Amino acid sequence: MGGLEVRELECFLVLAQELHFGRTGERLYVSQSRVSQLLGSLERRVGARLVSRTSRSVRLTPLGERFRDALEPAYGALRAVVDDTRHAAREVAGRLRIGFQGTADDRLLAAVTAYQERHPGSRVEITEVALSDPFGPLHRGEVDAAVVLLPVEEEGLVLGPVFSRQPQRLTISVRHPLAARSEVSAEELAAVPLIAAAGPAGEYWRRAHAPLVTPGGRPIPEGPAVTTLQEGLWLIAAGRGGMLLCEPTAAYHRRADVVDIPVTGLPETALGLVWHRDHENARIRALSAVVAETVP
């Protein structure tokens, strides 16, 4: 039965109903000769004649009748599985789990609200994605989509809309020698140990946000590794190093014992909506469309 074609089975079942090659071809939108080809291929796989054909009549052989009786319920069940799966893939109503790395700001929450308003019956659940594990929840199926800091180079993940491009700021202790500056250059990062994310975050992602060298090639000291942003802020306040943060994140977490300073000479940060290719469905595509339309 290796290599059995569903099209052959479908052709046989229609022919068993019509008992006419021409009408069978019309129902399947194929030629009469194609019906003969499909039937012949199926009979060669089975190893026996299933249909007896003369110039005046078409009828099933006894084996063909037995085959039809056994095949019809199995084929019907297969069609039901396909139809149910197709419906689920196209269904927008239902639960959508969205992970946010850091803070879900007003623009992203407005996009979530717009998604729910456009798709009555949808239910959005929001969860935080750890700084140290931006892509793990997607790989483990804990969330359907996630808003994470770029870059994304993970196998199996799809990058959707990119948004919220922001200049980077250096967050350091108020006691640091650079704290009184109105801005610093990227080359001056050589004087600041940069705190990086620990854990399973990929090295390429970790070094995008805590580089080891300046754009000019000067080495940047490695600071401690942390699993959460709050851990990083505590270490910054204690004078253990600094962190590169986007402007909104630095503003949201502003506190009296740290200061954030614009950095010139570094690329902007950006957020992206990401999901796993194997889990893509209509809900994720609908969310992606809303985010692309509403979040700058």
CATH topology of the largest domain, anyone? D-Maltodextrin-Binding Protein, domain 2
How would you describe the oligomerization state of the chains in this entry?
Answer: single chain
Largest sheet: 5 strands, mixed
Q: Mean pLDDT, as a whole number?
A: 91
What does the overall shape look like? elongated
Number of contiguous helices: 10
Topology pattern, helix = H, strand = E: HHHEEHEHEHEEEEEHEHEHEEH
How far from one another are the termini? 55 Å
Structural class: alpha/beta
CATH level 4 superfamily of the largest domain: Periplasmic binding protein-like II
Number of strands: 13
Q: In percent, how helical is the residue content?
A: 25-40%
Rg from alpha-carbon coordinates: 30 Å
Q: Spans with pLDDT under 50 lasting ≥5 residues?
A: none
Describe the overall structure.
The protein has 296 residues and is α/β, with parallel strands linked by helices. It folds into 3 domains: 6-90, Winged helix-like DNA-binding domain superfamily/Winged helix DNA-binding domain (Arc Repressor Mutant, subunit A); 94-164 and 271-294, D-Maltodextrin-Binding Protein, domain 2 (3-Layer(aba) Sandwich), CATH 3.40.190; 168-267, D-Maltodextrin-Binding Protein, domain 2. 40% of the residues lie in helices and 25% in strands. The protein has helices at residues 6-18, 21-28, 32-46, 62-90, 106-118, 136-139, 203-209, 229-237, 247-252, 282-294; strands at residues 51-53, 58-60, 94-101, 122-129, 145-149, 157-166, 168-173, 184-185, 194-197, 222-226, 243-246, 258-264, 269-276. The strands form 4 sheets. The chain has a 5-stranded mixed beta sheet with strand order 4-3-5-13-6. The chain has a 4-stranded mixed beta sheet with strand order 8-12-7-11. Helix 1 (6-18) crosses helix 2. The chain is elongated. This is DNA-binding transcriptional LysR family regulator.
